[in-house]
């Protein structure tokens, strides 16, 4: 007689209500000790001064809800470690005088640029994103140097960059411009889209899965793209100036908006300055230059006067465009400068810490 195993009739466990926003079993396992302390997992959807909006699961209804929380308990002197849009956090509903964040979970990726001030600190634009959508308007001639800078910022984050050439309905040479952009973005997908007519949007939706962040100049159409991707009017949109095709700062805060069917997009304010904070992304943007330099006679070639320099040979025969080489050198100089300033700041902070400990030791009563 053959004995058959009974067929299991138990239904699979339902997905977590925040699974579409990136909540995983690994994050749940890491959060378990915090859950035992009565804290709730959530994701920051918007930052304001001293507080934020957190999307979490209502313990009573079991549905996603947005709640406000104070950020001061997790705010530090290092701006790069402070909570930002896209962070997964521990929400404390019992905090007094108001609910607050109790912890920020480790980030998988983070878009970090140099702060707009003179101090050598980083500013996080968005966290835990899978794809960085670099919006570039076709209504004005794209700036190759700026695109390379934004690409370095995206690669540095640990996420995958994707260039979106917007406002295709306003030009007739979109394919030619795309070819030019592809030439300075090796290994990166470049799409041409029109949020107004819908052309190219299906391809973008197919690639914009998981969590995405939109970065670019004001007027590039980031808010319009956000509305098109989400199928809502979540973001306010303004027209660019007809005189110079420059945009107005419509988006004033980084905001996470869920996508239909799962995933999310983070719209960010227009970037006037894009200071890099780290150098790994530069090597990926200029992988073609790195490949050429590998053929130099000397491993430590400075590409100035050494014999059999492959870089100078490529510049001479036009294989390596002069503009691209100058862009590479400029970003390298900036990176070296910020790295030196960061090291100096860390040394100064350690010196102050040692001085504080020394004073405290001297002030301690002797036995």
Automatic annotation (TrEMBL):
<dbReference type="InterPro" id="IPR010914">
    <property type="entry name" value="RsgA_GTPase_dom"/>
</dbReference>
<dbReference type="Pfam" id="PF03193">
    <property type="entry name" value="RsgA_GTPase"/>
</dbReference>
<feature type="binding site">
    <location>
        <position position="309"/>
    </location>
    <ligand>
        <name>Zn(2+)</name>
    </ligand>
</feature>
<keyword id="KW-0378">Hydrolase</keyword>
<feature type="domain" description="CP-type G">
    <location>
        <begin position="119"/>
        <end position="274"/>
    </location>
</feature>
<keyword id="KW-0479">Metal-binding</keyword>
<feature type="binding site">
    <location>
        <begin position="166"/>
        <end position="169"/>
    </location>
    <ligand>
        <name>GTP</name>
    </ligand>
</feature>
<keyword id="KW-0862">Zinc</keyword>
<dbReference type="InterPro" id="IPR027417">
    <property type="entry name" value="P-loop_NTPase"/>
</dbReference>
<dbReference type="InterPro" id="IPR004881">
    <property type="entry name" value="Ribosome_biogen_GTPase_RsgA"/>
</dbReference>
<keyword id="KW-0690">Ribosome biogenesis</keyword>
<protein>
    <recommendedName>
        <fullName>Small ribosomal subunit biogenesis GTPase RsgA</fullName>
        <ecNumber>3.6.1.-</ecNumber>
    </recommendedName>
</protein>
<keyword id="KW-0699">rRNA-binding</keyword>
<feature type="binding site">
    <location>
        <begin position="216"/>
        <end position="224"/>
    </location>
    <ligand>
        <name>GTP</name>
    </ligand>
</feature>
<comment type="similarity">
    <text>Belongs to the TRAFAC class YlqF/YawG GTPase family. RsgA subfamily.</text>
</comment>
<feature type="binding site">
    <location>
        <position position="301"/>
    </location>
    <ligand>
        <name>Zn(2+)</name>
    </ligand>
</feature>
<feature type="binding site">
    <location>
        <position position="296"/>
    </location>
    <ligand>
        <name>Zn(2+)</name>
    </ligand>
</feature>
<comment type="function">
    <text>One of several proteins that assist in the late maturation steps of the functional core of the 30S ribosomal subunit. Helps release RbfA from mature subunits. May play a role in the assembly of ribosomal proteins into the subunit. Circularly permuted GTPase that catalyzes slow GTP hydrolysis, GTPase activity is stimulated by the 30S ribosomal subunit.</text>
</comment>
<dbReference type="InterPro" id="IPR030378">
    <property type="entry name" value="G_CP_dom"/>
</dbReference>
<keyword id="KW-0694">RNA-binding</keyword>
<feature type="binding site">
    <location>
        <position position="303"/>
    </location>
    <ligand>
        <name>Zn(2+)</name>
    </ligand>
</feature>
<keyword id="KW-0547">Nucleotide-binding</keyword>
<comment type="subunit">
    <text>Monomer. Associates with 30S ribosomal subunit, binds 16S rRNA.</text>
</comment>
<feature type="domain" description="EngC GTPase">
    <location>
        <begin position="127"/>
        <end position="272"/>
    </location>
</feature>
<keyword id="KW-0963">Cytoplasm</keyword>
<keyword id="KW-0342">GTP-binding</keyword>
């Amino acid at each position: 007689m053959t004995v058959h195993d009974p067929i299991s009739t138990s239904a699979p466990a339902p997905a977590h209500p925040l699974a579409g926003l990136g909540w995983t079993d690994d994050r749940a396992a890491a959060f378990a000790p915090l859950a035992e302390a009565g804290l709730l997992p959530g994701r920051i959807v918007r930052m304001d001064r001293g507080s934020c909006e957190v999307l979490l699961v209502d313990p009573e209804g079991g549905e996603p809800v947005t709640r406000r929380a104070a950020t001061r308990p997790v705010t530090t002197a290092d701006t790069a470690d402070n909570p930002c849009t896209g962070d997964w956090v521990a929400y404390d509903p019992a905090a007094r005088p108001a609910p607050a964040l109790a912890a920020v979970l480790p980030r998988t990726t983070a878009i970090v640029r140099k702060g707009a001030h003179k101090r050598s600190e980083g500013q996080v634009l968005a966290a835990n994103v899978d794809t960085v959508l670099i919006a570039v308007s076709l209504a004005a001639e794209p700036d190759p140097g700026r695109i390379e800078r934004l690409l370095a910022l995206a690669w540095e984050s640990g996420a995958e960059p994707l260039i979106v050439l917007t406002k295709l309905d306003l030009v007739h040479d979109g394919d030619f411009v795309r070819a030019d952009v592809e030439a300075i973005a090796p290994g990166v997908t470049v799409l041409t889209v029109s949020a107004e007519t819908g052309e190219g949007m299906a391809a973008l939706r197919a690639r914009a899965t998981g969590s995405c962040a939109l970065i670019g100049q004001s007027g590039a159409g980031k808010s319009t793209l956000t509305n098109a991707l989400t199928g809502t009017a979540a973001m306010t949109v303004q027209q660019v100036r007809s005189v110079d095709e420059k945009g107005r700062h419509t988006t004033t805060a980084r905001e996470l908006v869920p996508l239909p069917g799962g995933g999310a997009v983070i719209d960010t304010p227009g970037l006037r300055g894009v200071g890099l904070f780290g150098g790994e992304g530069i090597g990926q943007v200029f992988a073609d230059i790195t490949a050429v330099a590998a053929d130099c006679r000397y491993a430590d070639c400075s590409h100035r006067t050494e014999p059999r320099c492959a870089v100078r040979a490529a510049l001479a025969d036009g294989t390596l465009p002069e503009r691209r080489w100058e862009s590479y050198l400029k970003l390298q100089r900036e990176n070296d400068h910020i790295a030196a300033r960061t090291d100096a700041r860390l040394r100064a902070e350690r010196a102050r810490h040692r001085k504080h400990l020394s004073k405290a030791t001297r002030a301690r009563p002797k036995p």
